[in-house]
Amino acid sequence: MPKLPMPIVVLISVAIAVDLICLVCLFVLRRRGVYIKIRTMFGPALVFDSQDDDGVPIRLLNVGGKFQSVSYVQDSLKYKLVCVYHRYFAQVVDIAGLKDGREGRALVIGGGGYSFPKWLVSSCPRLSTTVVEIDPAITDIARRFFFLDDLEREHHTREDGRLNLVCDDGWGYLTGSGERFDLIVNDAFGGKRPLGPLKTEDGARQVRDHLAEGGVYLANVISPLQGKGTDVLTESLDACKAAFEHVYLIPEAPESPRLTGDNVLVASNARLKIQARYAVK
């Protein structure tokens, strides 16, 4: 057998060493509860296993260096909501009478780990939910690690059609849709950027015009309440105040107004039974 030239031997040795290092890193990360997953449209995706402040096991999705979703992992809790702003979303859905009351249709723009859509399907039996997620890799991760497959199987969503998954740009889907929804949820923020032209009056009117009578719009506005970096929050509130009769802002951490938080913007032409201190119009 002919001998390989020395540079090739060195390259092969280096490649083998790199492969071994990668395998060791993967093993160490896995032991620490970290799953390295596939690339996504918005950067590498990592799935972390951890615990909340009470020691309850949770799973987190990080995409491109930013955390996008959190889920409980215990079977009895896997459809419950971990994030504070998602819990505020759920309270508004209940206030709007969509949890245990009338039939309705929901549109969720942004899947992530599908935390809020899972809650909608499991907790709102008379609600039909469409989720628009632009990246199929994210939906695949939700199926494999965040119990989306379990949800579809246990709640028979493929048979009854209560959950419709769409791979598309969220803003394009909304503006091109001839449908109206009782609930529109914007959970597709990338960093601090709002969905499409939300911060413009035209964008807010587009959302309003795709809501049924008395429909509710919910958005996660990632911003501090005061100081530097509040432009997105101010512009989003102004846009909704120009388009809707009633606008509310439920801050994640009102006691720390200069810290960036997941603040819940609520807009509707119907007056909702939300505490007056949260009303901005």
From TrEMBL:
A biological-process GO annotation: polyamine biosynthetic process
Pfam entry (one): Spermine_synth
Keyword vocabulary terms for this entry: Membrane, Polyamine biosynthesis, Transmembrane, Transmembrane helix
Residues annotated as transmembrane: 6-29
Residues annotated as signal peptide: none
Matches recorded under InterPro entries: SAM-dependent_MTases_sf
UniProt protein name: Spermidine synthase
